[in-house]
Structures are given as structure tokens and as C-alpha cells.
Design a protein that fits this description.
25 helices, 10-stranded mixed sheet, single chain, 60s Ribosomal Protein L30, Chain: A, Immunoglobulin-like, 4-stranded mixed sheet, 14 strands, Serine Threonine Protein Phosphatase 5, Tetratricopeptide repeat, elongated
Length: about 575
């Protein structure tokens, strides 16, 4: 990039007056306009947290004095001060130094890549070159030359919106509960003995039914009734026997239900009843669990017979040889089984809300966790989660959610303390590690945040973790990786759209602009002024004045401070003197 003006030439001539005794230096100053400089990018741009430039210079033939040393220093000048980039030192062929050599006869070129940290006050700035030429103990400053404007800082629009994770409740309003009992019968009999009615399991079942019938939130859903005969009887006999056992059991327990006024029992399908004439499966299970020495052999032999009648005869023969089968195994198979099924309906939302405020100790863990979701008041949520921590100190979710709400209340120290408590319970929990990363990020400790996110991703990849990693990738100027992480996170946010726009510099694919616009349209909160500001910037790149002006107006309506930002944004440099632009940002 070659820039020449009258004042620049005048300064060269003035300098030359004082260099009549400096011979070669005088010539280098006079010919300085012939040196060509170019800077990439042409308009300086923030990338990550820095401004990086590549300066290239070309010296014409017979310019560079053989004994001269030339120091070139890029300097970014702005209203609040200046920042110096790395210098480049060159020398002629006969200079006594150890720098890159430029030929006097053929000339030569150099390049320099350097970067400086970006600060917000650098937005309106100039990049100039300060050149010092010297031969032995004589030196002269070549007049400075502006080589670039700066600084585009669109990447600095990145919103500070890391995603924290709240632990879910496991509340189920309607739960099921079942309780059962067995009735055992004498061989070839179906009558229910008094001893079975008074048996411990039957007594407990009847008491359970009575107690459940007295609770308004208990709903009887049905009874599973199964009746069996042992496999050592004839199939015809067993079929009738199992059916009769089923009938008698249903009749007996039906009276118990009627006594307790169970209305649901009047429904025709309340009993789900099934009879099994030959309980071969039950026989195999009891044999396997027994201590009979030859049980495996016995079962293998009996399994050879698929015909129930043949198998029944073989079982009788074996039972005669092994009396333990007749005495211990078979009596357990002559039975009916009852299982009462009940639905327990939990508290309504309104009752949970009331109890969480007035008597939270009456609620169990999941009821408390769920009740916190019923209010939008963060302080009420915090109180509930603190109750969880008090009642259930080993519950990681309680500690995590205290931290989550404190973070929403911008109490970062308190939030961090709670997350640390959760981490003591499980040091590898991805949710907790992510949330500690969010705290670090909000405290501007990017390195620590990255470490937490990486650890969380190793434990379990989640949408929030991917999103948070993407933000750091944008902050570091790694837009391609950021886009992959944003896409996997499933969040449509301003930061995702911004990364898509910023990646245009890498791809030079104008489709990035439309892709960015598409993401901006999907953002839930369309009141965010930055949405329209970024649309205006896209309009500047597309040289679409209407897109610029309409979106700038909307952005400023939503946030008046946008006007001041736009006035100094080099993205709109071509429009700074445009009357419409000026009227919008006044």
C-alpha cells in the first residue's frame, strides 16, 4: 500500500536540508516514497483478544545503502495513546550486524507478523510506520507513514451468556404400589383353610386394603389373581382344580373388598384372573433353588418330555424316589396368588406450593425439588433448595441448585461455594463441573473455565457444555471449531449467529451472511438490540443500505447506547459521512 501526500513530501524535503552531510541517509530519506508497504488485513481487525498484522515491504533497486541499518516499527495510534508492534530491522550488505540483508543492486522485501492485545479504545485508530535509518553513529527518523485503519472489533460483540445447568427433579405425581399374598391348598383340594386366612401375609394384605381404602389419594386399580395346580396330577384334574381354586380365592377376597367398600371392585375387569393347570415353570424354579443333590439331572430328564401327561407320570416316579420333592416342592405349587395394585396420587401443584412455603419439612426430596419449579421467584426457589440441602445434605442436586439460583441472583461467591459442596459429593459430575466453569468464565478466568468444561465434556457431553466450549472458541478466534460446537449444542443464540458471521473471514463464503441471518431469526428473545445491530453490519458487508438503516433504527430503539457504538464502528466506515447514517446515530 503506497500513500503519499503534500505534507509528507514537504517533511521529507525539510529533513533532507539537515542531511546534506549524511550522504547515503539523505538519499534513503528522499527515496522513501518509493518503498512500498502493504498490511494484511487492510482494515485491522480484532481476532480473539488481539490485533494481528502482517506487514510486507518492498525496496526498489539501488535504494538500500550498503552500510545502512533500517528499523521499521508499526505503531497503532488512537485517542487514548498508542501501542507498539514488534519491530523489523534490516541492513545493507556491508553493515556490521546480524539482520536480514537487503541488496543495494536488486533491492528486496521483508515481512513481519506481530500482534498486540486489543482494548476497546482502539476502535478508531491508525496504523503508522516509524522508520529509523542509521549509518554507524549517524541516524535519522524517516517521516511516519499511515498504512492502515483500525479496528474492526465485531468479535467483541460476543455476549457473556454461558449456560449453567440446573438439576432436574424426579417427581412423579402418580405412583403405583402393589402388595400380595399367597393361599396354599391341600393336594387335590380347592377349599380355603382357616389357617391360610390367618396367615401372616394374608393378614397384612387385608390390613393394607383397609388402610388404603381410608386414604383419599389411594386409588384401587385392580387385582392380579393367579391360581395353580402342581404338575404331579393328571391334566384334566388339574385344569378343573386350578379353576376352582381361582374361583374360591376370587370369591373370598371379593368379600374383603366389599367389606372395605372398594367401589372400583365392582368393575367387571377389576380382577385379572388366570389359572394354570400344571405349574411346570414354578416347579423348575423351586428345584433350581433347592438343595436336592441331583436337581440338574432330574430337570434334564423331565425336560425331555413335552407331553404333560407323560411328564406328570415321570414326576410321580421321581417324587417317590425323592420324598423331598413330594414333601417340600409340590405343596408350594398348590396355591393361588393375589396382588393388589394401587395408584397413589401425590399433592396438587397448589398444595405443594403452599407446603413448600409454610411447612416444607412435610415434603420429601422429590416433592421439594419439584415445588421449586412451580415459582418464578428466585428467592423462593433458593429457600426451597436450601431446605433440600438441610434435609438431604448428601443430595448433590440440592447443592447444585442452590448454586444455580445464586448465580441467577449474581451471587457468584455463594454459587461457587455450593458447587464446590456438590463436587465433594461427586468430583466427576458433568453438571457440577460445567457450572464451576461458568463461574470461572463470569469471573474472567477463561483458562480455568476451559479446564472445567473439558473435564465436564469428558464425563458427559451435553448441550450446555458444548455451548460453553463454543463461546471460548469464539473468544480465542477459533471460529470453525466454535461453529461445530454451537451446532451440536442445539441453542440458537446471538453468539452462534456472530460466530457464523465472523467465520466469513476464514471461508470468504458469502453464504455465511445468510446463515447468520437465519440464526438471528430463530432467537427466542427478539428484543435483544444486538440482533439488529449484527444485521446492520451484515448489510454493510452486502452494501445494502436499507438493511443497514432499518436495522440500526430498530437496534437504537431497543438500546439507545447502540448509536454511540455505531458512530465509532469501522464496519460502517463507508457510511460515516452519509447523511442518513448520521441522522440515525445522532
Amino acid at each position: 500500500m503506497k500513500r503519499t501526500n503534500v505534507s509528507y513530501l514537504a517533511s521529507i524535503l525539510l529533513t533532507a536540508v539537515f542531511l546534506t552531510s549524511c550522504g547515503g541517509l539523505n538519499k534513503m530519506v528522499k527515496l522513501a516514497p518509493e518503498v512500498r508497504y502493504s498490511v494484511t488485513p487492510e482494515i485491522l481487525s480484532m481476532h480473539g483478544d488481539s490485533i494481528e498484522i502482517t506487514l510486507k515491504g518492498t525496496f526498489p533497486a539501488k535504494y538500500f545503502n550498503k552500510k545502512a541499518i533500517l528499523s521499521i516499527t508499526p505503531v497503532l495510534k488512537y485517542e487514548a495513546g498508542e501501542k507498539i508492534f514488534e519491530s523489523k530491522t534490516l541492513q545493507g550488505e556491508d553493515a556490521q550486524a546480524n539482520n536480514q540483508v537487503i541488496s543495494f543492486v536488486s533491492g528486496g522485501s521483508f515481512d513481519l507478523t506481530s500482534k498486540i492485545p486489543y482494548t476497546e479504545d482502539m476502535k478508531i485508530s491508525d496504523l503508522e510506520l516509524r522508520v529509523k535509518a542509521s549509518i554507524k553513529d549517524k541516524s535519522v527518523d524517516v517521516p511516519t507513514e499511515k498504512v492502515a485503519d483500525g479496528v474492526i472489533a465485531t468479535a467483541n460483540l460476543l455476549e457473556k451468556d454461558p449456560k449453567s445447568i440446573k438439576a432436574d427433579d424426579k417427581f412423579v405425581r402418580v405412583t403405583t404400589q402393589s402388595k400380595g399374598a399367597d393361599i396354599h391348598f391341600i393336594i387335590n383340594k380347592a377349599n380355603i383353610r382357616n389357617s391360610e386366612i390367618k396367615a401372616e401375609d394374608m393378614t397384612a394384605l387385608k390390613n393394607y386394603v383397609k388402610e388404603a381404602s381410608e386414604k383419599s389419594n389411594y386409588e384401587f386399580k385392580g387385582i392380579d389373581l393367579l391360581a395353580y395346580a402342581s404338575p404331579d396330577g393328571a391334566i384334566d384334574l388339574n385344569t378343573k382344580l386350578a379353576a376352582k381354586r381361582l374361583k374360591n380365592t376370587k370369591k373370598y377376597f371379593g368379600k374383603q373388598l366389599k367389606r372395605n367398600k372398594i367401589e372400583a371392585a365392582k368393575e367387571g375387569d377389576f380382577f385379572q384372573a388366570t389359572s394354570t393347570p400344571e405349574d411346570w415353570d414354578g416347579f423348575q424354579k423351586l428345584m433350581q433353588n433347592s438343595e436336592i443333590q441331583d436337581k440338574d439331572l432330574i430337570l434334564r430328564v423331565l425336560s425331555m418330555y413335552s407331553d404333560p401327561d407323560v411328564r406328570e407320570k415321570e414326576i410321580k416316579n421321581i417324587s417317590a424316589a425323592y420324598t423331598i420333592i413330594a414333601d417340600k416342592i409340590m405343596p408350594q405349587l398348590r396355591r393361588s396368588q393375589l396382588k393388589v395394585n394401587i395408584s397413589i396420587v401425590g399433592y396438587s401443584d397448589s398444595i405443594l406450593t403452599e407446603l413448600s412455603k409454610t411447612n416444607p419439612d412435610t415434603l420429601n426430596l422429590e416433592e421439594l425439588m419439584y415445588s421449586a419449579t412451580l415459582t418464578e421467584d428466585l428467592n423462593e426457589q433458593l429457600n426451597i433448595y436450601k431446605t433440600v440441602v438441610k434435609k438431604y445434605p448428601e443430595c448433590l442436586r440440592g447443592h447444585n441448585n442452590v448454586g444455580y439460583v445464586n448465580m441467577k441472583l449474581n451471587k457468584l461467591d455463594e454459587a461457587k461455594a455450593s458447587f464446590e459442596e456438590a463436587k465433594k459429593i461427586n468430583a466427576n459430575n458433568a453438571m457440577v463441573l460445567n457450572n464451576l466453569g461458568v463461574i470461572a468464565y463470569l469471573n474472567n478466568d477463561i483458562e480455568a473455565a476451559q479446564e472445567y468444561y473439558n473435564a465436564a465434556a469428558g464425563a458427559k457431553q451435553g448441550n450446555e457444555i458444548s455451548y460453553n466450549q463454543a463461546i471460548i472458541k469464539v473468544k480465542n478466534g477459533n471460529y470453525e471449531d466454535a461453529l461445530n460446537l454451537f451446532a451440536s449444542s442445539k441453542f440458537s443464540t446471538f453468539n452462534f449467529a456472530l460466530a457464523k458471521f465472523l467465520n466469513f473471514k476464514n471461508t470468504q463464503n458469502a453464504d455465511a451472511f445468510e446463515a447468520s441471518m437465519g440464526i438471528l431469526k430463530k432467537i427466542d428473545n427478539q428484543d435483544n438490540a444486538l440482533i439488529y445491530y449484527l444485521k446492520a453490519i451484515i448489510g454493510a458487508h452486502q452494501q445494502n443500505a436499507d438493511l443497514i438503516y432499518n436495522n440500526l433504527r430498530t437496534a437504537i430503539e431497543k438500546d439507545a447506547s447502540i448509536a454511540g457504538k455505531a458512530k465509532k464502528d469501522i464496519e460502517f466506515a463507508k457510511y460515516f459521512e452519509d447523511e442518513t447514517f448520521k441522522s440515525i446515530v445522532q
